[in-house]
Amino acid sequence: MSELAEFRSEVSAWLSENRPAEPDFLLPETFMEVGTDSQFHYLRDWQQQVYEAGYLGMSWPREYGGGGKPQALQDIVTAEMARLNTPFMMNTIGLNWAGPLILSRGSEDEKQRYIQAILSASEIWCQGFSEPDHGSDLGSVQTRAVRDGDDYIVNGSKIWTSLGQHAKHMILLARTDPDASNKYAGLSFFLAPMESPGIEVQPIRKLTGEFGFNQTFFNDARIPATCRMGAEGEGWQVAMSTLTFERGVSGGQAGGTSMIAMKVADVVELARRAKRHGKPAIEDPWVRDQLVRFLSEEQGDRLATARAKHPALVVDRPGALALSGKLRHTEHRRRLCQFAIALQGANGARYMGDAQAIEGGKWQRSYFNAFSATIGGGTSQVQANIIGERVLGLPKH
Fold first, then answer.
1. How far, in Å, CA of 394 to CA of 122, rounded?
2. 25, 244, 245, 350: least buried by Cβ within 10 Å?
3. Which CATH class name applies to 264-391?
4. Do residues 350 and 360 touch, judged by C-beta distance below 8 A?
5. What is the DSSP letter of 97?
6. Strand, helix or coil at 139?
7. Residue 202 phi, psi dihedral angles, 5° rounding
8. Rounded to whole angstroms, how far apart are CA atoms 144 and 152?
């Protein structure tokens, strides 16, 4: 058995033996649905356990709390977590966006201050980019940060701040120069402490009935100037670096799964039980065709991740797989859940809490929740534009 195969067996055994018991409450599907204290503590304790076992941040530098080991080992751990469907790593924004950003652009003090606490989940991170009145137009941020001695005074609000009610820090984009030559030049980027006076977090109830999203208000909140990353006016460049990590274009994430996997195999089993024209739905040629398409997509996405690591296999369009990954994965999940509901016929109208709902209404819940990922980090429409312009070279008009 090769060294990597031995490691995979070790990881599989550890995850099987140490995964937490199923709770007596509903688990969230992603970090964007963590709304109760019970969910939060359950998932934070699991992340701490994984980190203490040495299976998280394995490729991050040892001097900052990581493992200092090859990325291949972390990839194996993440793959085994997905295969065994263990609970996900809750501190997603810290592990996948803020942490890689700090490691790539942060000062030595920032790396020493933040990285280990991100991995251990002792400090949770949230994101302060979107605002209520500007949709996907991130460059039109209106939250103001005015320099006052050693601090910035911040006023404004941010929307969709997932985990904001539990977060210790926020990656914050704010306008420091309203008179700049263009809207992008007047922005600055902060690693903002959420415990600062003047910061208020209000939970938002989602269509699913769950919480997790929040609106965050800044009312003369004081943030130390030392929390600014980069110079004043460089916020747009730092934010764009952050988005390359969020969208999976740049590597360097800590590892671990960030959501409950929705597998095509589960929909195949649903098709075996569901009825269509009085027969098992899986016997219907159209249903079988759709399932094969989903299976092909799922396998293609899995192989694309491996292919992207080999420059010789992507020489024709080097950035295509990375730039399209977020769009492919999120839309696949949304359409898969929609198809699972369609298989249920009239029962597709039932939801969680209905005793007659198929599989407890999980596919309906997953379908509604799937839209979060198609919007966050740039909507599917924005992602399609990025692919069209940067990969295919199409004109903006």
1. 45
2. 25
3. mainly alpha
4. no
5. I
6. helix
7. -120, 115
8. 9
C-alpha torsion sign, points 214, 247, 7, 119: negative
Return the axis-axis angle of helices 285-307 and 264-273, rounded to nearest 10°. 170
Q: Is 393 exposed, middle or buried (0-12, 13-18, 19+ CB in 10 A)?
A: exposed
pLDDT digit string (tens) for 187-199? Answer: 999 999 999 999 9
CATH of 126-233, one of 3.30.365.10, 3.30.70.1130, 2.40.110.10, 3.30.70.100: 2.40.110.10
User: What token pair was written down for 252?
Assistant: 């360097």
CATH 2.40.110.10 domain residues, the chain: 126-233
Contact 156, 196 (CB under 8 A): no
Backbone angles phi, psi at 106, to 5 degrees: -80, 165
The structure tokens listed for 25 are 């409450």
State pTM to two decimals. Answer: 0.90
> pLDDT tens-digit profile of 213-266?
999 999 999 999 999 999 999 999 999 999 999 888 888 999 999 999 889 999
CA distances from 307 to 58, 320, 332 (A): 22, 11, 19
Catalytic residues: 246
CA distance 392 to 383: 13
Only one residue has tokens 């980027």, namely: 189
